[in-house]
Each structure stands twice: as structure tokens, then as C-alpha cells.
Amino acid sequence: MGDFWVFGYGSLIWRPGFAHVETQRARLHGYRRSLCVYSFVHRGTRERPGLVLGLDRGGSCIGLAFRVPGDLRDEAITYLRERELVTNVYLERLLKIRLDGGSTVDAVAYIVDRQHEQYAGALDAADAAAVVRGAVGQSGNNEDYVLSTLEHLEALGIRDHWLEDVARQVAPL
Prior knowledge:
- α3 (about 125-130) crosses α5 (about 160-170) and α4 (about 140-155) crosses α5.
- The protein has a 5-stranded mixed barrel with strand order 1-3-2-4-5. Strands 6-7 form a two-stranded antiparallel ribbon.
- The chain is of the alpha+beta class.
- It has helices spanning about 10-15, 75-85, 125-130, 140-155, 160-170, and strands at about 5-10, 20-40, 50-70, 90-100, 105-110, 135, 140.
- It starts with a strand and ends with a helix.
């Protein structure tokens, strides 16, 4: 099998964790980046959930596309499934993305399962910030996750106004 692409929109941007030979900025239409997943493991607990990002229906999302060599397909997919499907709140899909140069490719992406108990829905920024503030899980505190994601998006020149609003409420200047 040939090379394939993986679409990253959150922590995959700053910590992909799998071998790849190319990275390009890309846009996924039909889904938006959203703190719409209650985290019971990585950034919170069942007793005190945090929020992590998911791709939810509507709008579009700018992120990064990672090209993985075909001979590393099994290794990369195994890693991604172990990372993204811990509680099965995400659904693995092959979706069309548009690379910065204008070409369209199919990419593996993980979208939120709206029927899953961890789906938080469309929260406003104040409600999302209230959930994030003080939540801690196996991978650290929730505020760091939000702020790190935002820092990496800003470094790439990617604006996410809603996430910026959440961050301002979580860690005011």
C-alpha cells in the first residue's frame, strides 16, 4: 500500500507520536475543532471530567496533515488507535482534506461520536472554561492542554477564536 495522510487538529499537531515524512497545513470541511469531549482519562477523571478537543459536525477546521510512508501504515494506525480510541468516543474515518497547495487527499481523522456518553455537545466558551479549570488526568492538567494547543495553533498562524475565548477565561492575562 502507498503512503497515507493523517489529519491532526489538536494534540496531534504538537505531539503526533508516529513517524511521518511530510507535514502540511490542511483544511477539513464539514467539521470544526471543539472542546466537546469530556475527558475521563487524559485531562480529567470520571468524578471530575475535563474537556478535550474533538472534530464535531459543522464548519471547517484548519490543522496539519501528516504523510506516513505506506510501509509504516500498520505501526502508525496501531499507535493512533491506542491513543485515540481509549474510550471509543472518537470514530476513525477517512475524510477528504485540502492541503495548503490546493490538492485534495484522503486522510485518517478521528471525529467525535455524538452518541457517546463523553460527548459534551456545543458548549459556550464560559461553560467550557468552567469544566477545564481545575481538571487533571493521567496526562496532566486540562488548562495546560488548552493553552498548549492554542500556543501551537498560534505558532502556525491558525486562529481559533472560540478556543482563544476559552483560554482567556481559563488563564486571564
